[in-house]
Amino acid sequence: MADTMKMGQYAKVKGNIEDAIHMVTGPIPAASSLTKDQILVRVLTVALNPADYKLPESYVGSLLIRQPAIPGFDHCSRVVAAHPSVTTFKNQLVFGGFSRAPPNGTLAEYTVISASECAALPDDVDPEHGAAAATAGTTALHGGIGSWGLQFANAMGARVVTSCSGSGSAVDMCKELGADEVFDYRQTDVIAGLKSRIVSFGLVVDNAGNSSDLYDISPMILKPGGTFVQVGIGSNVDLGSNAMTVKRSLLASFPVGGCKYYFVNAKNSTESLEQIAQWMTEGKAKAVIDSKFTFAKVPQAFQKLRTGHAKGKIVMAHI
Ligand SMILES: NC(=O)c1ccc[n+]([C@@H]2O[C@H](COP(=O)([O-])OP(=O)(O)OC[C@H]3O[C@@H](n4cnc5c(N)ncnc54)[C@H](OP(=O)(O)O)[C@@H]3O)[C@@H](O)[C@H]2O)c1
């Protein structure tokens, strides 16, 4: 194994992260430096998440990341070394993602991650699909997000009503993934449409988070004891969005009509990833890939991500 690797690194983000990332060469983490539960992996595929740019570009988020930093939460990789405490993985393909913004993320040829944030990649699942299943998949499992949330709700037998822009084949895609009813938010007033429904919901999930409209009507459209889940955080992470989450959580301590509120805090765990792997193997859920880039095209990948309209996951591979 070589001593050095290529990695995408940024030191300080003023503006867009893609303008701050430079491909540099640095040392491969030493196997002898691994601590309890850690594995050293050779990264095959990275899947991007909005947090990959929202955190480093925000004042609050950037305070959480030691810099210079390597971006990237999600990966599909081959294990090349493991701390003796790790008995589960040996030289095999794994997928998963960091649960907190890492200083040394997955946009590198090698990275060090906790084994408990990974699961074995099933033989019949493509590495790109494994990477795409990590943070978005586990977030969906704990509340719902985009294409994964639709499929998991369907796999659990729920009746699903969702919204999308209606651009291209978006409505057909939502129906194919398990939505029973789809609102095109550019053509119809989704809020009015939801309010006029006779049957109320057990669960309302806000995946966009760019307005409080859905939250405001949730007491009217939820069944007694129903739950409002906040996943989307709008266009950036700032003090205002953090304060809003705290305020809603406090209000939920005194629920009106017995409705509950919770904010999903993405957490990758072997257990959640194994559940998703099982559904993928059984054909109950599949990764939706919007686009693929090589590491040389990092700026283009981030530009696509920040449109907020990718139809599925954006993945990157070393080539
Ligand atoms: N709380 C957590 O732990 C957690 C974890 C992961 C992500 N997130 C947050 O969740 C949000 C979604 O993340 P993502 O990974 O799905 O990526 P994303 O790039 O934010 O989502 C893209 C998708 O959102 C749809 N969309 C955009 N605006 C919409 C609207 N007003 N109504 C309905 N659909 C809309 C787009 O469909 P159209 O093109 O059809 O509009 C596209 O399919 C982001 O705010 C992200 O930061 C939170």
TrEMBL record:
Occurrences of domain Enoyl reductase (ER) (ranges): 15-316
SUPFAM superfamilies with a match to the protein in the record: GroES-like (SSF50129), NAD(P)-binding Rossmann-fold domains (SSF51735)
TM spans (from-to): none
InterPro entries, per database record: ADH-like_N (IPR013154), ER (IPR020843), GroES-like_sf (IPR011032), NAD(P)-bd_dom_sf (IPR036291), YIM1/Zinc_Alcohol_DH_Fams (IPR050700)
GO cellular component: mitochondrion
Source species, domain of life: Eukaryota
GO MF assignments: oxidoreductase activity
UniProt-listed Pfam families: ADH_N, ADH_zinc_N_2
Name of the protein in question: Enoyl reductase (ER) domain-containing protein
The organism of origin for this protein: Penicillium hordei
